């Protein structure tokens, strides 16, 4: 199979590309920057912007499938940048798929497209919610997911996967931020720290996307659907943070911030921060919601429809993480 993978500059998409190559697939990697050293050199590399429809269409030439993960992420930025990259970029991928007769498209989404701040307990993947102006990223990805799933047809099979809090060795997002703050004595817990949260070890996120690609075809049970992907092992925020700090050989001494206070601070910071700095803010309302409310998901539909089960438990993942930190 020949597969176009977009956004291979990220840990997850890079891992997916490498897994496909290792099993014998022909892979075309599309990302804005020059090829990452971590990507198997047996792939073809295309340096292009997802907003360039001609470049995307050219990259999809001869492909049987596309895994589309290129996206503008984060809090800081203008709506135009999120809209053109996440929404227009997805439209470009669909245009390319139709012009090049690609039959399968896996859209890499995010659980935030359907997260409105309330606790999610054993939740299914509910429809993407549009109209939230507080997060350009979530709003643009929600619109893009709807566009992608609407493209599911008798010629192009589409599904959306929402990987939840992907982490692993080398992760600069969840792991990197917690370790940096713990190292500087600035680690904070929003609420009482007892909210149950799903996360996804990177190897499981990779294998889940590959399993979805294999299960997807026109008329498949999974075609036209969205799924949340996680380890299916919810842990409290306290347990997760403590395990990360332990793996990094750091003391676990978090400060506690009441949820109401965290939500208020997050709302203020996300409005003021972009006016003062270009970096990501230390807290936003969305981050406070994620740390202070339960959010874990029912994995049965994804496991049944895509014939997938996690390969690595959370405890095994933390063991791998500790080994990686020890080797640095």
Automatic annotation (TrEMBL):
Coiled coil: none annotated. It holds the Pfam family 3Beta_HSD. It comes from freshwater metagenome. Residues 5-248 form the 3-beta hydroxysteroid dehydrogenase/isomerase domain. This is Unannotated protein. One of its GO terms (molecular function) is oxidoreductase activity, acting on the CH-OH group of donors, NAD or NADP as acceptor. GO terms for biological process: steroid biosynthetic process.
